[in-house]
Amino acid sequence: MSSPFSIGDIVNGRYRLVAPIVSSPTADVFRADDLSLTRPVAIHVAPFALHNDPVFLESFREEATAAAALNHPHVLRVYDWGEEAGGAYLVTEFPVGGTLRSVLDRDGVMSESKVALMGLELADGLAYAHARGLVHGALSPATIHFDADGRSKVADFGFATAIAKSHVGPSTDIRYASPEQAQRLVTDGKTDVYTLALILFEAITGSIPHEMSSPAETLSARIGTPLPSHPSIRSLDMVLAQAGAYDAKFRLDAVSLTTRLQATVGALSSSATNTASMAPATVAPTDAARVTKRPVLGFQAPTSSDVLTGETAPVPPSTLIEGIESVRSSGEVPMGDFENYRPAARRKRSWLRPALAATLFVVTAGLVGAYATGMFKPAHTVPSVLGLTQQQALSVVSDSNFKLEITGRSFSTTVNDGMIASQTPDAGTSLQEGESLRVTISQGAPPVAIPTSIIGKDCASATQILAGVGLKAACPSSAAVKSTKVPAGHVIKVMYDSQTNPASVSKGATVTLVLSLGNGTATTSTTSTTQPTNGHSARPVPNVVGKNRTEVFALMHTAELYFVTTGPGSNNGTWHTVVSQSPAPGTSIKWHGTVRMTVK
Asked: Is the same domain home to 455 and 429?
């Protein structure tokens, strides 16, 4: 990528370029010295082809301002931004650890645990940015940087979206394009999740999924094809499969991916700890150590002091006789009763056999009861099922012979409708086979109340109010109706899913604003573009270049003018932005005159 700056140049009178770091479709990155604060920084310079591109520069200013507000440990911090010699640049913290691209070029692959931790950090950073309305859209190993402690950070928020709106073309490295980018569909945060799955796959296996011999073949291979499996992936296989789902409806978002990777990192850490604790201890090779046996339940082995050692000396017969004679002479046991004599010790042992039988019975009964209650069932680590559908969760828990119990449904601002929002026990804990994993199902975000203040507002004002509560609006001219009470171009009522003025709708929904036509539509005349028509004065043409569909509808309704469009999406209403217009802004034309627009 050609850059307008060279090593040694001083940008904005403050940043001296020292050395190149990396080049990607979104930016050329240089190491630079901040001459004002005497610290190293990185300067990300937009592609040379975008210099003096008004559409890009306007979008860049908005995106750069938003990117500078991001403050997250895994998003490269933006210190400054600006334009010089017709070009645009971002000034960020200096990533002393280099880029993931340089790491993979040097080492080839990374360990499973390092990839899992890196993925967790990056997913967390993406979730943070997505929650603030920023989508990267051009992730690649070249846009992932490391700090001095090895923490990973996402760079170039602010460039990719602005480039996508320009006339230059895609800002994405084709090798990391998502299926929706391959099909030129609308992209969102899940596009970043798919690309991150490709990057993690490459980091652990050394290859990029579905990379073919040409860009066109690579893009084609991404459509309708799941991520392949690989023996090196192991514990990350299920997570990457869900993050890399080719259908975005079934793909994890960044929040769900963060949750899944947290469980994976925890399981890998626990496994490493257990493996270390199972390592055999070093024991001195003594005779005692060599003959130590496994303990036996219910029996205490005799110690060395209990065992007779050496040879037993024979007892002389005279001693035995003397002993018998002493008993006789003592009178304690008459000789006539000797045959009926039973030693006391032997009489005391008469209870031993029944006692042993009773003990054996109790122990056996206890073991049978313990088995019946599942005490001896094997236990497994609980997987994370957050963000999965009920069917997907059943497939996951069946591997460990767990049951899945649905305990209810609840609203969630982070988990999509129909997906699992919470689980008990938590992932990473232990649960016996046959036990239930209890989950709640998300009902999506709670409904949003429609502000009643939008009635009587013009389309642009009403749209702004609705955007403040997370709703979108459309002001189609086909829905406008006559009104003697509401001025032309102002909202009469709200329609949503065949409902009129609903109290609330789903968050993110698009409502239709029915605008007023005023007292009626007068017959137009083509005799003059500056003279009044049927009592209506000429109208100045508003500036609609760079505006989206909603803004164009609002401006044209307010001006009481019609418009026609040409360009991609003009035939089915799917265009996004006005590229040019005729007549020029400020030109006066007749009331209900027509403005021609080129759109994309």
From this structure: no
